[in-house]
Amino acid sequence: MRARRLRASLRGWGGVGAMAVVCALAVVFTLLLPLTQSRGDGSTGTGGPGLARGSQVRADDYCADTAIKKAPEEQTLSPSGADGDTIAKIKARPGEKRKLIVGVDQNSYRWGYRNPNSGPSGDLEGFDIDLVHRIAREILGDPDDVVFKAIPTNQRIPALQSGSVDMVVRTMTISCDRLKDVAFSAPYFKTGQQVLAPRSSDISGYDDTLAHKRICTAAGSIANTRLTADHDTRKLVASAVVVPPVPNQLDCLVRLQLGEVDAVVTDGALAASQAAQDPTVELKGGTFTDEYYGVAMNRGADDLVRRVNQILVDYRKDTTDGWQASYDRWLSATLNKDSTKSEPPPPVYLRTS
Known about the structure:
Elements lengths: L8 E3 L7 H13 L53 H7 L8 E5 L2 E2 L3 E3 L9 E2 L1 H14 L5 E5 L5 H6 L5 E2 L7 H4 L2 E3 L4 E3 L1 E6 L15 E3 L5 H11 L8 E2 L6 H9 L5 E5 H10 L3 E4 L6 E3 L2 E3 L3 H16 L5 H8 L23
Parallel strand pairs: 1-6, 2-6, 2-7, 11-12, 11-13
Antiparallel strand pairs: 3-4, 4-5, 7-16, 8-16, 9-15, 10-13, 10-14
Helix pairs in contact: 3-9
């Protein structure tokens, strides 16, 4: 990524509070560990084996409680390059405030994280950050016309609803429940839930080996929703303990390192990055859901949703500095050199005017 793309400012989020200190220490500790590279065999080096792929179960088959009987990732508006009221308001911000305000993560290695080796500024880097810069470039003409706001996992939707951010680009899965509160772009990444545990653990995946194990999830995450439901319906082994959720995904890794929990369940893409940070943990078993990340925006911001969808179409077509280049830059070492398993299928749009 060009250096000027790494100069965007980061503004803290009030909700992070004391947890920011813990997360910052964890990031510094884990990023100072030797970073591993893919061995070219689908593995992630000392961070654990590559993602095993078995039969998948969708997190949401379709949104049955809405008038539109479609999968959640198919409930987005068709692309458009036109500006509407939402974009006009962004462009009308005075002077230096004429920037796109985006909620992101600063603790997810290779997705959105502050690189301690990039100098005093600790620039934000990662796959999600690349996408934000592309959106800012297409809407405002400059990839650096961005104000980043670091938000915890459980504040993604509140940040949008309060108007604190224009959009959220933070490994956010498109789901039926979330569509009740926010609008999503078309998918830009495919992943699924997966188990992360110490390499020495006898846990083998999302199965009966989780018996009597303490499992950590983040508040407001698909993992927490899924495990709570599975525990209630006995799809998760009864003796497994889903501990009270934490504000941020990285908090689970910290608790795992401290021995306070036995396993973490999160998106496989994030789990792989956490395994790359800490060689004492690894992915256990394959992903057990199919899920898709989308850019989240406010309901009613139709022009912004359509514009982002057009940007995503062009981003995926760009063979020089688009989706594939960003994947190669940030994720091929922790996931797999073959990006086809992570690239979402051609988007499906709602047939609305």
